[in-house]
Structures are given as C-alpha cells and as structure tokens.
C-alpha cells in the first residue's frame, strides 16, 4: 500500500512537471515555418526563412510545361510528387480537424497547404497526364548543392494511360480533395477547382490501374517506390472524395472495392507508402459521427489498429523504445511517430463525439482520454521529454539537432557566400564537424535510434534528415495540445 502511494505520488509529480514544460504554440509556429524552408520556385515577399532564395525556376521546361513551385521532400533538392501529395493530404487533415485550435497560425498553415496544391494543380493540368517528379534523384544525390545553385538534371517524369501510376495519382487526388475541404469556405472558387481536379485525377488513377513504381521504376525506386501497391491509394482517394463531395458514387466505390482493394488487410501502418490505418480511421468518422453503419467494417479495422498501439493490450504490435517513443525499423522513424500519433488523436476525437470506447483485450480499454495521453506523450518526447533531454525539432528548446542532413541548411547561405558552390565543392560542408550555418526552424529529424540515442551527425541521414511528411501531421497534433495542454 505504501509503495503504491509512493508510486502514485511520483506519477503525479512527473505528470505535473511534464505538463507545464512545453510551449506548444511556439512549437506549432516553428513546425509550420519549416515548410517555408522546403519551398521550391519563386519565393514570395513574406518568406520568413530569408536565407532561402528562389530556386529551380525552369522546372518543367524539359517537357515544355511550368512545374515551378512545390516542396523539396527532405534534405535534397528533388521534387517527389508522391510524398509531396501525402504531405498536402496530411496538412489538410491537420487543418480540417484542428484548424480551429491554430489561432494566428492558421493563416500560415493555409499557406503551407496552398504551396503544395498550387503545384499539384500545375502537375495535373493536362487531362490524362500527371507529372510526378522533377529532378533525377541519382544526379541530385550525387551532389551536395544549394537548391539556388542547382545544376543537376531536372528531368521531368510523368504517368499517363500507357504508363499508369494509380498510387501517385490516387494520393494526388486525395490531396486535392482534402484541400478542397480546407478552402471550401475560405476561397470557394479555389476549392471548386481543387475538387474538380481531384475527381478527374481519381478517374484517371482508377481507369488506368497500375503502379508508378513499375512504370517509372528506375526513376522512383528505391526513393519513393510504392512498395505496398496502389490499391490503398485508390480507396484513400475515394474516401477523401466522398468526404469532400458527399457524392454517392464514391461511397459505393468504397463499399464495392473494399475487399478487392484490400481495405480489410489490417496493416497497422500509415505513411507516404501505406495508407491502411489512415483509411480506416478516416472512414470511421463517417461511422461514429455520420452514422454510416454500412461502413462498420472500417471501424472494426480502426479499432484493431488503435489497440495495436496500446501498451498492455493483447493486440499490441507496435513497439516503443525504452524511453517511450513509437519505434519502427527502416529509418526516419519520426514519420511513424507523428503519423500514428495523429491518427490516435483524430480517432480519440471521433470517439469522444460519439461517446465510444474500445475494448482491447485483457483489462485494457481504449478511451478517448487514453489515446490523447499516448499521443501527447509522443509529442512531448519530440519536444524534449526523452533520455537525451533534447528536442528533435530544430530551433525549439535549448538543445536540438545542429547537424541535420539538409543541403540548404548545411551550406552557407547566398547572403554569406554569394559565389556558386558546385556539386562536389559542397562536400567539405557535408563533412564539416561543426553545426549547420542556417537554422531550418521547425525541422523535425528522423530521430533517435532504437535505444533513444541520437548522434547528431549529418552523415547518418536515417536519423538526422527532416522530411515534410514528418511535420505535416505534427501541425495538427501541436495545434490540439496548444489549445488543450
Ligand atoms: C544507438 O546509438 C548509440 C550511440 O550512438 C549506440 O551505442 C547504440 O548501440 C545504438 N543502438 C542501436 C540499437 O543502434
């Protein structure tokens, strides 16, 4: 009894100290600012990360189209359409579910969505064609160059009816549909354009089925190869189109193709490659709040997924590091942390609205409060409550990664070094032991290894590289915890 009291006391103290310790508003602001550092194309006058300048202003010229703009995916200078579209979908979902908690940051979040969707609109402007990548990834990765200096091959890659890409086209349709919800009341004409385009891109994706990893294998693999197949993206796109348009056809598509496209594969993953858990959580909202009971099977899958994250549950499959971070093998672990935590938080809100809880076997029950607590613990880990006692977000807190694997951040800015730095001339900056000269504010890196260690080394890109799809779901998480600390 005494021991139990002592433990309770200890728990109360540690909860109290961690509760007061984070400035979620500051972290949110930085999390969104990061996207400005990833911008490609002509930068606007209100650009806040001013060490970045215009870049890749001729993108698309190889195919006589305008493909300027969009985001570099990570620490390199390639514009990969597949993860960029996923980033836009998740940024949009963040705004849809948590925009009302974003306060003055909402405007910046909307700009971050629009920077991606403006580009996706250009990439999908020709019916039956979708431009899915600008930049030869091998040529790019062979150099350590500022985007402003780039002289690597800006090859343009596309999918069309003879070279299908239902994965990348499905994700692009999902992004455009999700963003149409974001802008529906804020800019109706833009929202209409996004939704119309989402519909035609989906039609193309569904009619000409195939994987872009096959059509464009040598360009996209192994970088953003769709290892998992294109079926999930078709369902994912239909789910977003249904949410955006409420058209019966998409609902029927989901029902008809549920088995064919493997919606019941209970794969507990969510990322640029694999949409399964996301599909089930998204459609569960229709079940729990919209009372679409004919989609109940998706909620059952989502329940299984939620339980797979609950410590102590007999369904638990997803691992945690000794320090408490969700951990999956394969590098860039933080993408799983933020994406899975986002789903937990979104699901917890849908459950609260409909007064639900989910039994997870043993004596473990998934309640909305429990899911929020797990998601918050992950966010707090990122912000500094971890064995390294450091934040994994650049510029947040006192200790954070200083040697991120990022070309623009690690090379001197144009202001301090106006002369060109060529492909191989950049190598010395890559190998330099010191910190990066330019702070890529808000960048969240791949994160610590399985035993919670972080070497802060530019060369270990699996741990030190930021990506747009790590930050996109974190925007929603931080907004929620800012409003509900
Ligand atoms: C994590 O990194 C630390 C320090 O760099 C190292 O000692 C440890 O072996 C690594 N753990 C794993 C599982 O790689």
From TrEMBL:
GO terms in the biological process aspect are: cellulose catabolic process
Question: So what does this thing catalyse?
Answer: Endohydrolysis of (1->4)-beta-D-glucosidic linkages in cellulose, lichenin and cereal beta-D-glucans
Stretch forming the signal peptide: 1-20
Which InterPro entries does its entry note?
6-hairpin_glycosidase_sf (IPR008928), 6hp_glycosidase-like_sf (IPR012341), Glyco_hydro_9 (IPR001701), Glyco_hydro_9_Asp/Glu_AS (IPR033126), Glyco_hydro_9_His_AS (IPR018221)
Q: Which residues form the active site?
A: 405, 456, 465
**Enzyme class, broadest EC rank:** hydrolase
Which residue intervals define the domain Glycoside hydrolase family in the entry? 24-478
Q: Which UniProt keywords apply?
A: Carbohydrate metabolism, Cellulose degradation, Glycosidase, Hydrolase, Polysaccharide degradation, Signal
Stated EC number for the protein is 3.2.1.4
Stored Pfam families: Glyco_hydro_9
Gene3D superfamilies (alphabetical): 1.50.10.10
One GO molecular function term of this record is: cellulase activity
Which protein family is named in the record? Belongs to the glycosyl hydrolase 9 (cellulase E) family.
Name of the molecule in the record: Endoglucanase
Annotated source species: Amborella trichopoda
């Amino acid at each position: 009894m005494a021991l139990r009291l002592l433990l309770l006391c200890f728990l109360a103290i540690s909860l109290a100290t961690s509760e007061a310790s984070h400035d979620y508003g500051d972290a949110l602001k930085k999390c969104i600012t990061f996207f400005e550092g990833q911008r490609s194309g002509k930068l606007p006058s209100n650009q806040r990360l001013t060490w970045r300048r215009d870049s890749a202003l001729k993108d698309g010229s190889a195919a006589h189209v305008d493909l300027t703009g969009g985001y570099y995916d990570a620490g390199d200078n390639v514009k990969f359409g597949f993860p960029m579209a996923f980033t836009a979908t998740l940024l949009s979902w963040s705004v849809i579910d948590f925009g009302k908690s974003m306060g003055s940051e909402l405007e910046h979040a909307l700009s971050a969505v629009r920077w991606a969707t403006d580009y996706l609109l250009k990439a999908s402007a020709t019916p039956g064609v979708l431009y899915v990548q600008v930049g030869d990834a091998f040529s790019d990765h062979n150099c350590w160059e500022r985007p402003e200096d780039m002289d690597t091959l800006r090859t343009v890659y596309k999918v069309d009816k003879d070279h299908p890409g239902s994965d990348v086209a499905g994700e692009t349709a999902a992004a455009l549909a999700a963003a149409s919800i974001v802008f529906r009341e804020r800019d109706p004409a833009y929202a209409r354009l996004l939704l119309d385009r989402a519909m035609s891109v989906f039609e193309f994706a569904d009619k000409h089925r195939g994987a872009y990893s096959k059509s464009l294998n040598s360009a996209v693999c192994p970088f953003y190869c769709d290892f998992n197949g294109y079926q999930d993206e078709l369902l994912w796109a239909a789910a977003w189109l249904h949410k955006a348009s409420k058209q019966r056809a998409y609902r029927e598509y989901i029902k008809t193709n549920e088995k064919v496209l493997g919606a019941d594969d209970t794969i507990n993953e969510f990322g640029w490659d694999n949409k399964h858990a996301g599909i089930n959580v998204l459609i569960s909202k229709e079940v729990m709040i919209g009372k679409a009971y004919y989609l109940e099977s998706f909620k059952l899958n989502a329940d299984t997924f939620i339980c797979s994250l609950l410590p102590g549950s007999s369904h638990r499959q997803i691992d945690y590091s000794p320090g408490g971070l969700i951990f999956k093998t394969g590098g860039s672990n933080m993408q799983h942390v933020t994406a899975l935590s986002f789903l937990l938080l979104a699901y917890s809100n849908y459950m609260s609205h409909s007064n639900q809880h989910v039994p997870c076997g043993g004596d473990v029950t998934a309640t909305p409060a429990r899911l929020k607590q797990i998601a918050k613990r992950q966010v707090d880990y990122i912000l500094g409550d971890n064995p390294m006692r450091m934040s994994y977000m650049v510029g947040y807190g006192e200790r954070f990664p200083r040697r991120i694997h990022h070309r623009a951040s690690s090379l001197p800015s144009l202001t301090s070094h106006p002369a060109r730095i060529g492909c191989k001339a950049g190598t010395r900056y890559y190998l330099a032991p010191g910190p990066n000269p330019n702070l890529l504010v808000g960048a969240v890196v791949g994160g610590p290894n399985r035993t919670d260690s972080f070497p802060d080394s530019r060369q270990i890109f699996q741990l030190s590289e930021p990506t747009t799809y790590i930050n996109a779901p974190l925007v929603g998480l931080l907004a929620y915890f800012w409003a509900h600390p």
